[in-house]
Fold this sequence. Notes:
three-stranded antiparallel beta sheet, elongated, alpha+beta, five-stranded antiparallel beta sheet, single chain, Alpha-Beta Plaits, 2 domains
Amino acid sequence: xxxxxxxxxxxxxxxxxxxxxxxxxxxxxxxxxxxxxxxxxxxxxxxxxxxxxxxxxxxxxxxxxxxxxxxxxxxxxxxxxxxxxxxxxxxxxxxxxxxxxxxxxxxxxxxxxxxxxxxxxxxxxxxxxxxxxxxxxxxxxxxxxxxxxxxxxxxxxxxxxxxxxxxxxxxxxxx
Length: 175
């Protein structure tokens, strides 16, 4: 079935078939050096699916940071220590992508505290709640939680809350 006939048949059924994705970005055909490489196809899929956008805080493998650029070949991430990382889109095909804020300003932040198992758990939990609610970074409208888990070596406290702006993540956690 020819390209035109296939497009017409899909239109009759109300379906959209993307016959030649490279034509959508202005290329008459895929150059041979690109067609042999998954990077180009991964870039098109990434731009189409949009698993992350500019400003999102993502983790791909062991790389975490703010998305500063999304190109056909890779995504640029700025890490909290101001290192720019380029992650090829093809790497996202076999790795989970964690998007902390999914295009929104706020994001959940988690701080871990560890105490010896012999302590006043009620007082420790209350002290941690007091620390959270007095933070100038806290977004009061969002939920917050203090989770407690006993481990063989002590007690693990996890504080979960939302800062007013996700970019204040590390200031909020260290506060």
